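General statements about sequence and structure are easier to judge against a single worked case. For one protein, we set the task of working out the structure tokens from the amino acid sequence alone. This step matters because it turns folding into a mapping between discrete strings. The amino acid sequence and the backbone structure tokens for this protein are reproduced below.
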Amino acid sequence: MRLKDKVAIVTGAGRGIGRVISIEFAREGADVVVTSRTKGEIEKVAQEIRALSRRALPVVCDVSDENSVITMVRKAVSEFGRIDILVNNAGIAGPVANVVDMDLAGWNETLAVNLTGTMLCSREALKYMIPRNGGVIINISSNVGRRGLAMRSPYVCSKWAQIGFTQTLAREVAKNNIRVNCVCPGAVEGDRIKGFVEKRAKILGISFEESYKQLEAEALLGRMVTPEEVAAAVIFLASDESSGITGQSLNVCGGTVFN
């Protein structure tokens, strides 16, 4: 087990990538604090973790709300005594629209959840990692944070900024034996991408199937990646196997981007 007896916080853990990361962490021996805004979802994930004979703590948390994040991290430390790993996975897709039609409220919400949420969770977790002189933070960005994508400007900007935040934070906390890295998935199979594909198809005046195939074709592998493939990269970066890696952004995108 690569994460035996580690304590991890995974945000946005109720579904999709976050759910799979949480369960795979448990398979690798970690106890997991699972957080999201939806109580029913994280309680179900917590049950799945406990079925693997690991401890789980579901905590409802809005990562864009400072007090909510402070409370969540305090509950985690109260329950488990420490934080070894933080995965900043919580995020929203945001508006699908050209900039000329952009809704300011949707823009602000996307940045608040995807970017400010990453900062708040990192800030609070570091208050417990730094005194222990150790820890790992992994931010879930996106391949579009490296190349841009039409009709997704708030999402793209938030994900691009996460990469810069990763590099900056890695420089700040290396002296405390804390590593900070980033995973940049491509289009990931699941309900979330289907919602984007549907909106994109409507705007472009094409069918859902054509829109879906266009996204698949962007990857050299000719398909979307799976949540399990993203989770495998996260586990590697959380484990001692990556002990010499910090400040890096790892693409898991099927060959959509190379940089």
Residues 104-132 form the longest helix (29 residues). The chain is about 50% helix and 15% strand. The first strand starts at residue 7 and ends at 11. The CA atoms of residues 33 and 45 lie 10 Å apart.
